[in-house]
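Ops channel
N.P.: pipeline sanity check, posting one input/output pair.
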């Protein structure tokens, strides 16, 4: 009975704390709203993010042919804005990450489209497995922004 209580009491207390926090409905004071990337060719970048990555487009308020907006989470967007004069070099440490159901299925899409990708250490045509078991790969969008694709289940 002591072992049962030793196990059940901490679990019950933890559950109570989680339940109270969930019921409090308190929202974080700061939320991510969007990330913007500045691109040379809006059509090419829209194709990349919509058709290759698989993001859903959403209405954008400008209707000026210079913006494409994508839904990337609850109340979070990716804004692609045209007008850049040229693509620039970016460090892999500064990247946008998207999670997919299957990195292996995503790889097939990349290979079909002849899109280059690499692991974090830079091994071309390979993905890596993080210490927590998440598969990840990196590729560049048409303007050289690094994109991580992984199968994290958060």
């Amino acid at each position: 009975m002591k072992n049962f209580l030793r196990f059940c009491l901490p679990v019950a207390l933890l559950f109570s704390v989680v339940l109270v926090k969930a019921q409090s409905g308190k929202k974080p004071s700061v939320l991510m709203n969007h990330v913007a990337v500045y691109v040379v060719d809006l059509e090419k970048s829209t194709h990349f993010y919509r058709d290759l990555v698989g993001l859903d487009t959403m209405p954008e308020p400008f209707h000026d042919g210079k913006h494409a907006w994508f839904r990337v989470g609850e109340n979070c967007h990716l804004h692609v804005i045209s007008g850049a004069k040229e693509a620039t070099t970016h460090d892999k440490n500064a990247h946008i990450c998207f999670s997919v159901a299957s990195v292996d299925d995503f790889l097939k899409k990349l290979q079909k489209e002849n899109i280059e990708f690499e692991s974090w250490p830079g091994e071309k045509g390979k993905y890596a497995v993080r210490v927590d078991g998440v598969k990840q790969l990196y590729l560049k969008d048409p303007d050289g922004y690094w994109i991580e694709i992984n199968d994290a289940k958060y």
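N.P.: looks fine end to end. Residues 1-23 have pLDDT under 50 and may be disordered.
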